[in-house]
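Reviewer 2 asked us to include a model.

Predict the structure of this chain.
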Amino acid sequence: MGRRPTPKDSEYRQRRNQPRALEAVAASRGELAPVEDYPAAPDGLLERTKGRWAAFWRSPVAVLVDRTSDLPALGRLFELYDDADRFRLHIREAAMVEGSKGQMVRNPFVKDLKDTQSAILALEDRFGLSPRARLGLNLSLVGAAKTLADLNEDFGVDGDDDPRFDAIDGELVSETSEPTD
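Predicted model (structure tokens):
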């Protein structure tokens, strides 16, 4: 039997399949900054899809993408977006086509579009490209979490206006308790 190689010294070891710790913390606080320098879109995409590629890299979610391990899957996602757009164009031209015996049948691209959309949904969830997927990844990209004071301000409630504080000698009074004389 062969020998197992000795592990690399932790000083030289690099993990490339996980976001850097500070980026994950910033993501959980909604403090992500968009990526300025991003890889080129996969070859052969429609201009519309290339625009979506650029928009993705300008979004806060792109910060968490590992360019080494995630880029192939991300490329597949945008190729699927492109395929779906092409299928839709063909379906719009002719929703029904002539079958092998001259009968009218549904365009075969309809099934292909459905299969493509299923694959797109799975990849979008992996990359946090929907509100629900971001929740699953514990990302709050809309903004930092609101404090209790911010929430009260939204409802027009000020802590000083709480009627329970209308008490003798500044003590908290319950609505059910009898005032003392």
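The first strand starts at residue 96 and ends at 98. The chain has a mean pLDDT of 76. We have added this to the supplementary material.
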